Amino acid sequence: MTAYPGLGSRLAASAPVVADRVRHRFVVDGVQATPAAVVRAVRGEPDAAVLGDTAVLRLADRVHDQLVGAGPLAPLLADPDVTDVLVNGLAVWVDRGAGLQRAPVVLGDLEEVRRLAQRLAAACGRRLDDGQPYADARLPDGTRLHAVLPPVATDGPYLSLRTFRHRPFRLDDLIERGTVPPTVAPVLAAIITARLAYLVTGGTGSGKTTLLATLLGMVPPTERIVLVEDAAELRPLHPHVVALQARTANVEGAGAIGLTDLVRQALRMRPDRLVVGECRGAEIVDLLGALNTGHDGGAGTLHANAPADVPARLEALGLLGGLPRAALHAQVVAALQVVLQMRRTDRGRVLESVSVLLPTGEARLATVVPAWRRRQGAGPGAAALARMLAARGVTPPAVLQPPVVRP
Asked: What are the Cα distances from residue 328, in Å, to 189, 282, 305, 306, 318?
């Protein structure tokens, strides 16, 4: 498999030589590798004299990617179906929504992979070397990068790239892809209209962020959405969105700004909908406090393997913020109403269930009760969700209505 696919056999044969000479020229001359400068350099190569304009531009794009971009990984990152690109030493794997598959990409040798990792990290302003052998950053186009170098990466370097979708999904797109069943789409719309507070839960890569961004796009345009994220990922189709992003410490260990601080700042920004992109720390206490003081309709994502695990996950995060168990559950049942569970399958990411958070027992502990499940349909929490919607003036969708029993 050539490292320059799609360039034609004649160009592919000479491309490595031309690319190496052009790269060397930019390194020696110290010239900024802008797209125009790379095109001029490629045109000046003797081996490129017999090539047409289209072939020269294609080769220039490849050389530019190798100088300042993702190199041979660039075509994969540009593929709209690819969600993850993983590099294990010289092996490349991709996920197009149906599980990991080996990609026929030639990376060169391990030293070239190391340079690629360092170049990508440097583009994000991150250090990656023997003294700091791992980096977690975001590329200028929004792609999330994690890189680890040997000896920490025993057979590495290892790169993990989560691509950024430039065009957010609409609810119709999720229905078409099979993520959301058509019968349940009205339930999601009703939750947004009724301004119920909800969590989108699931495992890593289950589609939580995609669903949340889609639902935020359904918020009325007269409302202001304030996003708080550890890394900017949410890009809802909405005309009034402001986003706050956490900041890591600099090389001196100073300057970090966490989600807890950002949630408090967001409360002063007149949010109609307060959204925490991923709840994974003490910021859950501030979010629950905000949702209990008039900021209804808020949302967030949470890692949980099953809906029943959500209360335990919230307990663990609440303890990080110094909130005792009883107080945490009291806050949860007052602040949150709905849990949307996502699951990753061989055929893609799907909405597994819609549940309600209800107090149970004398201690009034928060319990997740399913209102709808993908395989079973309406669940025991359907009536409770229908009452929540009706109490806010929204007609419950048919899937939540009890079946009519005829004599």
From this structure: 28, 12, 20, 20, 6
Residue carrying structure tokens 């090539």: 51
Within this chain, do residues 76 and 155 fall inside the same structural domain, yes or no? yes
For residue 405, is it within any domain? Answer: no
Interatomic CA distance for residues 68 and 78, integer angstroms: 15
Q: Tokens standing for 184?
A: 């349940």
What CATH code is carried by the domain that includes residue 292? 3.40.50.300
51 and 78 in a single domain? The answer is no
pLDDT digits (tens, 9 = 90+) for 148-205: 999 999 988 999 998 876 667 899 999 998 999 999 999 999 999 999 999 999 988 8
E-only strand ranges, 11-133: 84-88, 91-95, 100-103
Domain that holds residue 98: 70-164
C-alpha of 222 from chain center: 26
The position carrying tokens 């049942």 is: 333
Number of CB atoms found within 10 A of residue 153's CB: 18
CA distance 15 to 25: 15
Q: Computed from CA positions of residues 7, 10, 16, 17, in that sequence, does the dihedral angle turn out positive or negative?
A: negative
Same domain, 234 and 252: yes
Are residues 155 and 181 both part of a single domain? Answer: no
Q: How many domains does the chain have?
A: 3
Average pLDDT for consecutive 10-residue bins of the chain (407 residues)?
Answer: 47 59 62 64 62 64 62 82 89 85 86 86 82 84 87 91 78 92 95 95 88 94 91 84 82 76 89 88 84 87 92 90 89 93 86 94 89 91 94 92 55
Nearest Cα residue to 349 out of 361, 340, 357: 340
